[in-house]
Amino acid sequence: MDALVRWWMYTLPPVDGRLRFVVYALLFVLSWTHEAGLLAGPDLVFRTPAFAYTPRGLAGLVLTGQPSADWVLPLRAVTAIAWVAAAIGLFSRPAAVITAIGAFTLHGVTAGVVGQNHGWYLPTFTLIALTCARTDDRFSVDFHIRRWRGLPERPAHAKDHDKDTFELGRTGFARVLVLVVAMGLLFMGGVAKLWGSGLEWLDGHTLRVYIEAEQTPPLSTFLKQHLWACAALSWATLSLELGALLALLSRGARHVIVAAAACFHVGVQLVMVPAYAQYLVCYALLIDWGAIAAWASARLGRPRAPTRPVAMTPSSPVARVSTAGGMLLVASLALVTLLRIEWWPVTHVPMYSTYLSKQRVGEIRKADLFDIDKAAVIARDCLASRPCAWALPIRVARHIRVRVLTYGSSEELGADVPSSQWKYLVSGVAMRQLSASANAGVDAQAPGGPVEEFLRTLVPEVRARAPAGTRGRIVFEYKVRGGYYRLGQVRFSSPEAPAPE
User: Fold this and answer.
1) What pLDDT is recorded for position 46?
2) What sequence ranges are listed for the domain HTTM (predicted)?
3) What is the pTM of this model?
4) Structural domain boundaries of the chain?
5) φ and ψ at 323, to 5 degrees?
């Protein structure tokens, strides 16, 4: 137990006030500028039609539909104010806690339109972990307020043999929490690829399919033309992800892996969609900047005075309870990985884990999705063997269109949904309908199924958009060879316009 306490408390130094400011400030900026960011996300939510909003996981137990701006926007304002206060160290402890609670809630709200919102998992957890960091050092406003009031300065490091003065914030516990989650997310991504594709993922075809879809020259042009380069990047990716846990063993390994992970995220952004600059900000907490500065000074012939060692007799109850909490976090990450749980706020990081080629989606032939009977069997098998192949729902969504048909006109629904949520929504409905038809041995067009139930939820929105007196149908169609197969339809009519007086 003593060794574990030392590892959790002293693997990394306490969070320095300058580093705290940089992390808070950069995450604040990115949260406003990234479309699905913690602070910008509510704008995306309210640009999304109510029928396309689907609460995820834990949020689904609290929200019954699209959340109201009456509480989301004030929550965002309070979170933003607390975020700035936490960055400069003003009322820093409550500010850090309010920021963490607000960020967590806003992450869950935004997940209803962008899926699990994986790009903001680590930043959200980082803000939670920073509530365990020291907030009133000499680079904070609170420090100068204490000095102005004549109060004594607090020591920078925790001496855990003194149970009366031990403070968790003066250890490296917060940074180690971020380290465990950051490396855990990388490792889970590698394991998910092995679960979903096995070693076949390494042949480069999967990566090339995603790169071809994004069309980001000039790098994408080279990679599309050279399968060996895609294979090499696939090997490098899986090696980094599966080797991420080595960062927990030594400072040297940690620095190498963090640098490699930063390069990985930059490379992904250059050739594919995901923009993970916010992860690079969090990675700054994983670097021992003091050790690097001391090494550089020694190389330049200007050695620094050695840092006075911190007493490390792990006897504080706070240290032991915190260590137990950290180990519970590790156990939770392991359980999520083994059981492949994807239920907000937890994830096993399944992105890009499905093997893809020009002919296949995992073990499924793409051509089979154009046959309604084979598609029904595929949907049944997918829903019966959760978790389903990660890429299959998006592939199924390409076969679906939902249209509003009125006299002489046709409008496709979902075109104005500013996120991928619509694709997940309609593919889920279609797969449940197809699966039910395969299980019961009935026509996929049988009335009263998931498709008809879904279309009925769209009727109020369609009525509101349609001119007075409009009559028509909402149809749900699945693309097969030679055309579209209608899975369901409902009729609607909008109220007649009131007669003029």
Assistant:
1) 92
2) 180-270
3) 0.90
4) 2-295+315-339, 366-493
5) -65, -40
